[in-house]
Amino acid sequence: MAFESLSDRLQGAVEKVGKKGKISEGDLKEMMREVRLALLEADVNFKVVKNFVRKVQEKALNSEVLASLSPAQQIIKIVDEELTALLGGEQVGIQYAKEGPTVIMMAGLQGAGKTTTVGKLANHLRQEDHRRPLLVAGDVYRPAAIDQLETIGKQLDVPVFQLGDQVSPVEIAKKALLYAEEKGYDTVFIDTAGRLQIDQTLMEELKNIQEAVHPDEILLTIDAMTGQEAANVAKTFNETIDVTGVVLTKLDGDTRGGAALSIASITGKPIKFAGMGEKLTELETFYPDRMSNRILGMGDMMTLIEKAQKEFDEEEAAAMAEKMKASTYDFNDFLKQMNQVNKLGSFESILKMIPGLNKMLPIDKMNIDPKDMVRTKAIIQSMTEEERQNPDAINQSRRRRIAKGSATTLIQVNQLIKQFNQTRTMMSAMTNGDMSALSGLMGGMPGGGMGGFGRMDGGRRKKNRVQELAAKKMARQLNKKRRHSGKKH
């Protein structure tokens, strides 16, 4: 997962401070030394690191901060604010044309995932902003580039404009724009040629396309795995064609974070989107404050809430909550929720978005096997409708029949029913206000391999200043989102 090593190092540094009631200048300097080393090891540009450390120290050495009642929380807040600024500050979206189609020119080096990103972005803007996209095959040099874009277009049911590989990219771009105006497409994505490295021919061609169609957005696709070198690439592109933003790809991989933490500072251009997987649906709007949350172990509840709002119907959710409360929750409900949760991402990725949970639960050691979910579904689907609606009616002979029908063992069927009953009891307790049931619920989740964790706070209710700050920050974000939604309506 992206930033994992950096995240662990930074969290360790701020937690040391968080445990102290009073903080001296020496404590602060020790913390910042660890922060500086963590950032350098994450391949963040040296000048960027130096500037970041200086800003945090200047703010934190303020006498009012060190003398305050909660200096640790104040310092964590400063680190969070400066990390957010380092990642670009405010989230910046696509700037749409006031008249005519919006033209988005995609640029980048070969292997960065540019063509796939064209498809991801088209799909994202169609879903989020209800745009009518047109994909333009402007890479006439790479073998099979046109075929790749056409395959993506078919998968998404999005039209692709192409004139083969014997027409110049400038002519293709100009004719594609006329075609979009004629057919009523409001967003035109021009896929341009990549190179193994930056060269004059590439830059001249991009400049010629820019002068021919005057794109509203020039998005640079950058491979997050390339570290701070990505910032140097972005700087060169920006000096030639004045990019409007960056799309970071492979941010779900084992990247150290140098690219994301260096680009905005070095180029002054925002990271607008991040590729979080190989699927065409796995693209996220990049929110600097939320990424800072994730890095500092504050989770990312806002993204989780937004994902859930897209997948879950409010009335259905309310009805489900009532069933949980009344203990009438059955296997049909269980199966429906499993399918919905799968759409939010992997179980581990969901848990990591919840503030502090990665510290309370050994998420990385859970060994949650996707096959367990498949087996669980097979067992439920082998039940009759009566058995799904009335789990208590499943006697031993029925269990043997279910095991045979789902190609599982009687032990696995018994285990699932036992876990389901535990989960139902815990959910009923939680919806009736008993949140201490959560630790039991985690031990009773389907899929095995997770065990029971007993008390998730390790038997002590320690004050976690990072979590306190995360809760306050999330409340502010929710209020801001509500105000924004109110203005839209």
Automatic annotation (TrEMBL):
Compartmental location: Cytoplasm
Record-annotated membrane-spanning stretches: none
Keyword entries, A-Z: Cytoplasm, GTP-binding, Hydrolase, Nucleotide-binding, Ribonucleoprotein, RNA-binding, Signal recognition particle
Pfam families: SRP54, SRP54_N, SRP_SPB
Chain positions recorded as GTP binding sites: 108-115, 191-195, 249-252
GO MF annotation list: 7S RNA binding; GTP binding; GTPase activity
UniProt cross-references to CDD domains, sorted A to Z: SRP_G (cd18539)
Catalyzed chemical reaction(s): GTP + H2O = GDP + phosphate + H(+)
Signal sequence, renumbered to the chain: none
Ranges where the SRP54-type proteins GTP-binding domain occurs: 270-283
GO CC, any one term: signal recognition particle
Family: Belongs to the GTP-binding SRP family. SRP54 subfamily.
Domain statement: Composed of three domains: the N-terminal N domain, which is responsible for interactions with the ribosome, the central G domain, which binds GTP, and the C-terminal M domain, which binds the RNA and the signal sequence of the RNC.
NCBIfam families: ffh (TIGR00959)
Protein name: Signal recognition particle protein
Organism, scientific name: Aerococcus christensenii
Organism ancestry: Bacteria, Bacillati, Bacillota, Bacilli, Lactobacillales
Gene: ffh
